[in-house]
Amino acid sequence: MKNIVLLIASMWLLLMVSSTAIGGSPITYSEPTTFSGCEFRVFFPTKTQQKRAFANGIESLIVQSVYDGESPFMRAECLPLSDPNETIAAFRSVLENQARLAGVQNPEITIEKSNLGVVGTYAGVRKAGGFDIKLFGKLVIGNVSILSLLISEEAANFPSDKTIYFLNTVERK
Questions:
Q1: Is 160 among the domain residues?
Q2: Rounded distance, CA 62 to CA 102, Å?
Q3: How many domains does the chain have?
Q4: Rounded Cα gap, residues 161 and 149, in angstroms
Q5: CATH code of the domain covering residue 112
Q6: Which has more confidence, 3 or 72?
Q7: What is the pLDDT of residue 59?
Q8: Neighbours of 102 (CB within 10 A)
Q9: Per the domain annotation, does 132 fall within a domain?
Q10: In this predicted model, what pLDDT tens digit does every residue of 141-157 receive, in sequence order?
Q11: How far apart are CA 25 and CA 35, in angstroms?
Q12: pTM of this prediction?
């Protein structure tokens, strides 16, 4: 009987947590974002705006959060891959370069395999306007594309509910 009560309590807790982020605030807005030629999609907990970028002859779409005065800055971009295995072999260098471009010195880097593909992260802190800003990047290498997510948030608030939601809503289309 005690095990059944614990099981029911655990299921109730899981149900309650599944619609909220770790801090407990429910996410009341979710904007799905997809990219042409990309096998992934992600959900922003804020309104977004789109920008086009060109690099090395490749046009890409960058989707980022609209500033609302309280949410972290969130950005997503997806690029095609001609050879995912080559990218995986150089993944640590890719993550270090992304961190450097974001202004992070001596980043913390992780690489792991998941059901999405090979997932890498980089993180670090930099000063901006007298505040410590936490920068956190997550890259996912799939079969035909690479998804790049970037979060910028005041370090004292990291990770906020919106950050956790954004980073954990990546899925295959």
A1: yes
A2: 15
A3: 1
A4: 16
A5: 3.40.1000.10
A6: 72
A7: 82
A8: 18
A9: yes
A10: 999 999 999 999 999 99
A11: 28
A12: 0.83
The residue type at 68:
D
pLDDT band at 55 (very low <50, low <70, confident <90, very high): confident
Q: What residue numbers bound the domain in which 85 lies? A: 25-172
Write the single-letter amino acid at 35.
F
Has residue 14 been placed in a domain?
no
In a domain, 151, yes or no: yes
Alpha-carbon distance values, 61 to 103, 111, 121, 148, 152 (Å): 22, 25, 21, 11, 19
Helix/strand/coil (H/E/C) assignment for every residue in the chain: CHHHHHHHHHHHHHHHHHCECCCCCECCCCEEEECCCCCEEEEECCCEEEEEEEECCEEEEEEEECCCCCCCEEEEEEEECCCHHHHHHCHHHHHHHHHHHCCCCCCEEEEEEECCEEEEEEEEEEEECCEEEEEEEEEEECCCEEEEEEEEEEHHHCCCHHHHHHHCCCEEC
Amino acid at 61: L
Token pair listed for 131: 């505040």
How many whole angstroms separate alpha carbon 106 and alpha carbon 75? 22
